[in-house]
Specification:
A middle domain of Talin 1, 13 helices, mainly alpha, 2 strands, two-stranded antiparallel ribbon
Length: 306
């Protein structure tokens, strides 16, 4: 029964996030914001809502391992699976924005801050506030670096209704929050019944489920030759996961962080972040890079389930 509940709750998370993403993107486009900034802010925040809902709920229930491993696992899946899939599917990727010069530091800085904050074995309210301040700095940076683009012609002719948009956003939030609550409870039960740790469940099972919105949005963007939105979504989601998700979760309840026990998984997330920086520095937006990322993901999964 827990498996059925878990699948239904993950479906609610994905559909809820989808409502929020669509309406957020519509609002952003009506205000003539660049594709990368849309991807790195509103779409990224929307696709990070499942992680935020799951981690905050887990933290509230005292399941700190799920709260932290969900963020680590989501970072791994976002870079290795989502970006790898984008590189394999897209016919041509040539971002208009200089991602290395402008954004590579943000792909790496949040996880470094997380490691430094976790050296004392916990993330508390003070750490949470600092995380949120870092998220605010990232948003300010993106808004300041926005390059205005011509708004889509179809959107110019489309009647924009705040009432409808607000209603769909509310539905999305309800689906996401309720789905997260049931996902955490059912996943914990599954972990106990199979003798698996909550860390492994959060790292792979929940993290994969909560990364589905990023996967869906980024693949769709890649097929539409919108690489800026796809890559912006991945970078922005990872920043949001470490700053907003862990920040709010550690404010709700102090999170224990065992860096030595989970060294391999945290190191994998860090190495993949370094690989993202390397890819942007050398503009390796091709199928070979996608294959390498997927191979790294396979090695991480093999080690985690061994």
């Amino acid at each position: 029964m827990d498996f059925i509940i878990f699948l239904i709750s993950m479906g609610a998370l994905v559909y809820g996030a989808d409502f929020i993403i669509q309406q957020s993107e519509k609002i952003a486009l009506h205000y003539n914001i660049s594709a990368f900034v849309i991807g790195a802010t509103l779409v990224a925040l929307g696709t990070s809502l499942p992680e935020m809902a799951v981690s905050m709920t887990a933290s509230l229930h005292g399941n700190g391992d799920i709260a932290v491993s969900n963020v680590i696992g989501s970072t791994i899946f976002n870079i290795a699976l989502v970006l790898g899939a984008v590189f394999l599917i897209a016919k041509k990727i040539s971002p208009k924005r200089d991602l290395f010069a402008k954004d590579s530091a943000w792909a790496l800085f949040p996880i470094l801050v997380f490691i430094l904050m976790g050296l004392d074995g916990k993330l508390n309210t003070t750490d949470g506030v600092l995380f949120l301040l870092l998220m605010a700095a990232y948003l300010a940076f993106l808004i300041g670096s926005n390059q205005m683009e011509e708004i889509d012609e179809s959107l110019k002719n489309e009647k924009f209704a705040w009432g409808k948009t607000a209603g769909l956003l509310l539905v999305g939030f309800i689906f996401t929050i309720v789905g997260a609550d049931f996902a955490v409870e059912s996943a914990s039960n599954i972990a106990r019944s199979f003798g698996m740790s909550e860390w492994i469940i959060g790292l792979f099972l929940i993290a994969f489920g909560t990364s589905l919105p990023e996967l869906t949005i980024s693949i769709k963007a890649a097929r539409n030759n919108n690489a800026d939105l796809a890559i912006g979504n991945i970078i922005g989601s990872n920043v949001a996961n470490f700053t907003m998700v862990l920040g709010l979760s550690s404010i709700v309840n102090t999170l224990n962080v065992n860096l030595s026990l989970y060294f391999f998984d945290i190191a994998a997330a860090f190495i993949l972040s370094l690989m993202l920086v390397f890819i942007t520095a050398n503009r390796l937006y091709n199928k070979s890079a996608g294959i390498v990322l997927l191979v790294v993901l396979a090695l991480v999964i093999q080690n985690g389930l061994a």
